[in-house]
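Crash report, auto-generated. Payload:
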Amino acid sequence: MTEYSFLKLKKEHKKALAAQPDFKMFLMGDCATQHLATSISGYFATNNVIVDLTDADYDLIDAQILDDNSELYSKAPDFVVIFMCTEKLEDAFLRCSDKQSFAENMYEKIIGYWNRINSNIKTNIIQFLFTENDNKVFGNYALKTSESFLFQVKKLNYLLSLGCQKTKNAFLLDLNSIQASFGQNHFKDDKLYYAAKMPITTEALPEVAKNVFDIVSAVKGKFKKCIICDLDNTLWGGVIGDDGLNGIQIGELGVGHAFEDLQKWLKSLKERGIILCVCSKNNENIAKEPFEKHPEMILKLDDFSIFVANWEDKASNIQYIQQTLNIGMDSIVFLDDNPFERNLVRNIIPQVTVPELPEDPSLYLGYLKSLNLFETASFSESDKSRTEQYQSEMKRINSEKNFGSYDDYLISLEMVAEVHPFDEFQTPRIAQLTQRSNQFNLRTVRCTEKDIADYAANPQYITRYFMLRDKFGDHGLISVLLMKKENEHTLFIENWLMSCRVLKRGMEEYIINTIVSIAKEHGIDLIIGEYIPTPKNAMVADIYAKHGFKRIDNNRFMLSVDDYSPEKTYIK
Amino acid sequence: MTRNEILEKVTGIFRDVFDDDSIVITDETVAADIEDWDSLTHITLISEIEDGFNCKFSMKDVLGMKNVGEMLDILEKV
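Recovered output after restart:
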């Protein structure tokens, strides 16, 4: 659904009047179409497209189409929009004597319009389908008899669908679906029809305008070609790196069902020619595991053209995918449950469409459908094999990655961290984090709440937890640090873990800077860090080495406090 | 709501619909007093007021209101 109101579109329409038009459109209806015209023009304007829209006078469809010297033909528009309302259709139905042939006769008439237009000008036709409003003359029996209006209007819509498949430049706008999503009581208001011959409320008009826009954009070659998906909590519930293959939610049970349906939908899109890619913050082998081994996954690895799982920022990874596929940024849709990642991508690559997924995964699919992101003006056999085409293309190309503006983005986030010794209030969350974190966890020391309280009380230990917030919101407690004073000169990092949500934002650097300044305060000159490998924490194997520590042996590292110069971070 | 509060809210809607923050309305204001108040904008106005006051006018209301005062009379009863 569009977020724009009719008044907003009206204002945009007014502003656009002076601008140089990009193309011409001609709208005609058998009802009052002025507000529809305003909405269409305004909706294009909000998308920076200026349409020179001629709104034909009331109920002049026949005259415009049949008269070779009409305004329609002298304007020679790029698009002709025909809106015939169901109210008028019912009038005609009630007048006609051969009710059983009504749909066929009406179909012949409309096809006749299209043919006549096509013989006069080179254009595209957008025909509104009819809203299927039952007049309740037959009750539920209506569809059991071809004499009812409901039967005939449904048949007419069906015939138009068939006819449209034979007329290349005719496109249908499914008004009935729009009405269904609004509910008839919001879509129409009989009072408005009687008072002003307006069959659609001002509440619903922006959505109708959006659909005109979607069709026109697709016909003009602007459409979505690729979906880039996050994995954890987007394609399945849970975090594969933490929860493991058996812990993620996918399949028919509970929340998993919502993810399963989303995957089915993505698969249908792939089969109709949309390229699927993965962009996930994960180790590649861990990220691929569900696709290879989980029996209930709908999507398999060969459904994806490019699979990117690493710890780089997502904007850079999307740039990499875009360059590799060689498609426009504006043809990409990025799906991610994490608001940080969405905002990052929106900021750095504003052309990418980033749906604001609802928090509740059961709402993902309905929301995505309501956006009508995948309008198309064609469909052919070659669309079905597009993924294979790109997969082979992939093997040839290897693009350079571009990290240019990531620093700027981090600065713009206005990140602020808080550092505190363990306290009673946060003890449950600290214990939980030590139990749940698997990936960014240097020694994987699991602690109970009592353990945490004991550490806090033990003078041999220095404890800290870190909170992070940025201009988009609060990430809460995201990192835990436990250090032991081995002697008066040496500090041992007994455990350090962090939530992967905040990776690559300068938090690692910020924490190491903090460790060093704590050491200085305590007059300590040597810091020892250790990495204990587990199947899941490979991502931090080199974290100490990367941040100025010297390797003592395989997994132990040391830092002389005097040798350290603070690392760059944008966190205050 | 008092009549004055209703008037204030309706004024806001008028200003929004006619996109003109200088509009002042009274009980006596009629369509001819406001430049863009034609039958079409009337429909927009009705829809916006219905939205704003969470009410539905009757067909008779829509076609019968002679001035702003009559509009306020109807809204007072909501």
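Post-recovery validation: The interface with chain A takes residues 16-17, 19, 39-40, 43-44, 46-48, 51, 56-59, 62-63 of chain B (CB under 8 Å).
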